Amino acid sequence: MTAPRPIPQDHLKPAAQLEAEGIAMTEVDWRGHTFTVPTDPDDWSVAAISAAEKGLNFTSLELMLGAKQWAEFAKTKPVKRDGVDLFKAINKALGLGDEEGN
């Protein structure tokens, strides 16, 4: 029997640590807040990508931001449209898709 593979924990690392490890980061300005996300989708956690592929967009957003930035976002008392707007801002900053993740 094969041992279970470890689950990547990159989404738990602070942005400064990711950058120090050579992962390019992009700052995303949104309503007076600055969030930092990995620039290259190849550096996104598998968990975040998997959640997005399953249509769990807010779980994906939470994993992409990490605990500290998610807490900062949560302080804004967001509703669904706010999360969608942040996703659009991230996609625009990264030059991805139609800004809605499609």
Topology diagram in text:
Elements: H1 15-20, E1 25-30, E2 33-38, H2 46-53, H3 57-74, H4 80-94
Antiparallel strand pairs: 1-2
Q: Main β-sheet, in a few words? A: 2 strands, antiparallel
Total DSSP E strands = 2
Helix content: 40-55%
- Average pLDDT, rounded to a whole number, is 83
Q: Largest sheet, order of strands side by side? A: 1-2
Plain-language structure description:
The mean pLDDT is 83. This protein has a domain at 33-94. The protein has 102 residues and is α+β, with helices and mostly antiparallel strands. 46% of the residues lie in helices and 12% in strands. It contains 4 helices and 2 strands, in the order αββααα. Strands 1-2 form a two-stranded antiparallel sheet. It is globular.
List keywords for this structure.
single chain, 102 residues, alpha+beta, two-stranded antiparallel ribbon
